[in-house]
User: What shape does this take?
Amino acid sequence: MAGTQQKEIATAGRPLSASVVIPGSKSISNRVLLLAALAEGVSTLTNLQISDDTLVFVRALQALGFGVEETGDAVCTVTGAGGGAPNASASVWCGSAGTAARFLLASVAAGEGDYHFDSTAQMKRRPMHTLISALQAQGVGITTPTGTFPLDMATRGLAGGPAVMDARESSQFTSAFLMAAPLCLAPLELEADVRVSRPYIDMTTRLMEQFGVAVERPRHDLFLVGNGRGYSANDVAIEPDASTASYFAAAAAVAGGRVTVEHLPLVGSLQGDTQFLRVLEEMGCRLTQAGGSTTVESQGGLRGVTVDMGDFSDTMMTLACVAPFADSPTTITNIAHVRVKESDRVHSVAAGLESMGVRVEETESTITVYPAKPRGATIDTFGDHRIAMAFSVMGLVTPGVVIDDYRCVEKTCPEFFELFEDMVAQG
Assistant: This one.
């Protein structure tokens, strides 16, 4: 019997026939929360993700003096400050949210005041040095005994002008700098060679444009942002979270049948993680779109693939958990950067698969998963929400899959298991 911190996944027993409504994108939610807070005017944000990460972001904005009010179910009204943080001093808790830790640090640095930032132990293990060094080079005083949180900031603004960002570890460093750029003392010329998670940079610049700030990109690694005009309020309806949708799409691939993700566009999405659906198509699934919703259908017979997931690596664990059911090995490449996420995700997914009797080979930046008949096991999630959700997919066809520390999904999707069980119950 699974313990109180464990959840056993019930097998589906038949092909699926379901539609699901996924909560809003975390990546979009926390970007538009910040942009609306920095803007002039009142913005209404609908289908906001309600999770640990977004609630941490809202509370942090409120601690900084921004007018953020939760006005309904997944609806938030933001009265923008027309610039930097209203409070000249504050203590800011970033929790385990990388978006809060990176985005808020840069935007607060663009104002004036003295601030204290702290986070969970999990966030303290993730990279921050690159962003801290870049902000210090802009004239911001940051004191940190460990090179990460906790840290104290004394700032009189960001200088702007030429700046260089090492973007290899996380695209969030570049996004953080770009969103703060209109508040800089001079136009920003940011050189950042973005090699991983590039769609997240595109998401940032497209959302900035929706709030009235244009980003010029004369070449792939150079971003130009003026400082003469700030953000303007904008009402945003947030897309379903494509990373979370990957588990429901994968469920159709593994268990067979069809699952429709409502309101998730296959073409034109702001989210790069929709590319995962195309990988399922390459493996033999059928994709259809109608009325802005996407359906994934499978009759079995999955093929192994080799795929570079550098641009949509939050779904690499999902693919790794589909891979044992394919007829040939699947190799996932360009994923070294996921070793410094909420867990070392290459190691975490390999450990879980091996505990289920699946052969896995890993290098620093790749993982290869071989076809297998998995057996049940208790999965160590390493406190990582995406490990918990990915292995739930395998439990649909493999009896005895138990997710340890299953409540870690609250970081981005507290209702995940309710939605997952409802999907199975539909047919």
Q: What stands out?
A: The chain has two domains: 6-23+240-425, 26-237. The two ends are 26 Å apart (CA to CA). The CA atoms of residues 331 and 368 lie 4 Å apart. The chain has a mean pLDDT of 96.
